[in-house]
Write a structure and sequence with these properties.
Layout (H helix, E strand, L loop, with lengths): L1 H32 L7 E7 L4 E7 L11 E6 L4 E9 L2 E6 L15 E2 L5 E4 L5 E5 L4 E5 L12 E4 L2 E5 L5 E7 L2 E8 L1 H4 L8 E3 L8 E9 L12 E11 L2 E9 L5 E2 L5 E3 L8 E8 L3 E10 L2 E7 L10 E7 L7 E6 L6 E8 L2 E9 L1 E2 L12 E5 L2 E8 L4 E8 L2 E9 L9 E3 L8 E5 L4 E7 L1
Antiparallel strand pairs: 1-34, 2-3, 3-4, 4-5, 6-7, 7-8, 8-9, 10-11, 11-12, 12-13, 14-15, 15-16, 16-17, 18-20, 19-20, 20-21, 21-22, 23-24, 24-25, 25-26, 27-29, 28-29, 29-30, 30-31, 32-33, 33-34
């Protein structure tokens, strides 16, 4: 009798465990699976110009009662067109404001934004240009060397900007008494910078000051041409910025028969020690691409961790960056072979390895030969961070979220033509929720406003 009662109790206990698991994980699985449609956003379109190239944000116009960012469409002609939204009858309507802010800025890469919200970049006529789209003011400098229109400048602090010269030199500009001046030139024979470099900054030693990170020493060793040409950097240079000047402090070399298949680096404090690390992609003909984590140790740039390799030459992986997407340690995201199978990877730092945590096939963030590396975004929606990008056929825009060790498909929305611009997420309609914007191949601006 006693044995029979024990068996019944065990069965009840087992049933209780099953019920607890069901009601605990079933809702989670529903959340993870997503809605398959983006029903939280209203679709709007705006024809600004068929030559619209990039989307940017700028501070609200002077005197505006709304503190949120203004959406700007930046054209290949160098014009900044403000796009605003007004709610009538319960829905938002889009308005492209008259009288854009013109400039001579080249549009090969998006201009770099300063802390005050203005933009800097290389002018088509060879100048350094600063544009304030709120005050509608322009500042320019005729430098000793023409800045490269293919390169994206880096902001060292509020008043100092570094740029690449057309000859591979480094130019430093400083704002003094509300006027921009060239303050330093590191000649090309010394700097040897990649002419289409995306310059970045990182606090490598944790002292609160930014170092300039430069892809340098170009080579035609690895002729893959996925980023527009067959010239790749073979060294990463770090410059210390101190007392308003730049000085080389450390160098990391790709090594024999290898290049950095990138036009710039990414940075993140992966181990939360107050010192930022450099993320970059290295490639060779034997193994293809692998991702490296470089850190400063004993005043040298050292290899801190690396991912596995693709395993085949002429196979590229688009490194997207490190992001806090699931509430735990930062995850390094990449799209492996974005022109083929398009594997979305999530990796984490584990000792001296970048260990893969999740992958899902079928997505792209890049077109062969393009220098546009910004066809993705993170969207915060319903308490979840979603990675937003095109599916491999470039006919749909999709959102995915990382739960545990798996990517979960959340939603998909058809798009009339492939994305031309960057993908931009910000709060455009002042409701404290993320919106999405991009430009398609026809030059049409698409905005998904939260509702």
């Amino acid at each position: 009798m006693r044995d029979a009662m024990m068996r019944i109790s065990r069965k009840k206990f087992s049933l209780l465990i099953v019920l607890v698991c069901f009601f605990t994980f079933y809702p989670f699985e529903n959340i993870a699976a997503g809605e398959t449609t983006l029903d939280t956003h209203q679709t709007l379109t705006a024809l600004v110009s068929s030559r619209t190239k990039w989307l940017l944000t700028a501070p609200a116009e002077k005197g505006s009662s709304k503190p949120n960012a203004t959406l700007l469409a930046f054209t290949m002609d160098g014009d900044f067109h403000p796009i605003t939204f007004k709610k009538t009858g319960g829905v938002f309507r889009v308005n492209v404001q008259d009288h854009p802010t013109p400039s001579d800025l080249a549009a090969s890469v998006p201009p770099t934004q300063l802390p005050d919200g203005s933009f800097v970049g290389a002018g088509k006529s060879g100048m350094f240009i600063n544009v304030d789209t709120v005050e509608r003011r322009w500042s320019f400098v005729w430098p000793s060397i023409r800045p490269s229109i293919l390169s994206k400048p880096a902001v060292l602090d509020r008043d100092n900007v570094a740029m690449v010269g057309v000859d591979g030199s480094i130019l430093l500009f400083q704002k003094k008494e509300d006027k921009w001046l060239q303050t330093q030139l590191i000649k090309a024979k010394t700097a040897r910078v990649l002419r289409d470099a995306v310059l970045t900054t990182a606090d490598l030693d944790g002292n609160g000051r930014k170092e300039l990170i430069v892809p340098a020493v170009p080579s035609k060793l690895y002729r893959h041409a996925v980023l527009g040409d067959d010239i790749e950097p073979t060294e990463i240079h770090a410059y210390r910025f101190n007392q308003n000047s730049l000085k080389l402090m450390a160098t990391y070399t790709a090594g024999k028969n290898s290049v950095f298949e990138a036009i710039g680096t990414l940075v993140s404090d992966l181990d939360k020690d107050g010192k930022q690390e450099i993320l970059v992609t290295k490639s060779d003909f034997d193994s293809g691409a692998t991702h490296l984590v470089l850190g400063m140790r004993n005043k040298k740039l050292m290899l801190k961790a690396r991912s596995g390799t693709i395993g085949t030459g002429n196979r590229w992986s688009h490194l997207l960056g490190a992001f806090n997407i699931d509430g735990s340690a930062p995850k390094i995201l990449a799209v492996e072979t974005p022109h083929l199978s398009g594997l979305l990877l999530a990796m984490r730092l584990s000792g001296n390895r970048l260990r893969e945590r999740a992958r899902m096939a079928g997505f792209t963030t890049h077109s062969v030969g393009s220098r546009n590396l910004w066809k993705f975004a993170l969207l915060r929606r319903r308490g979840v961070v979603e990675a937003v990008m095109q599916e491999i056929g470039q006919q749909y825009l999709s959102g995915l979220a990382l739960f545990g060790n798996r990517w979960h498909f959340r939603w998909s929305r058809p798009i009339p033509s492939p994305v031309r611009s960057n993908l931009l997420t910000a709060d455009f309609n002042q409701d404290s929720k993320d919106d999405i914007a991009f430009v398609d191949q026809a030059g049409l601006v698409h905005i998904y406003l939260s509702k």
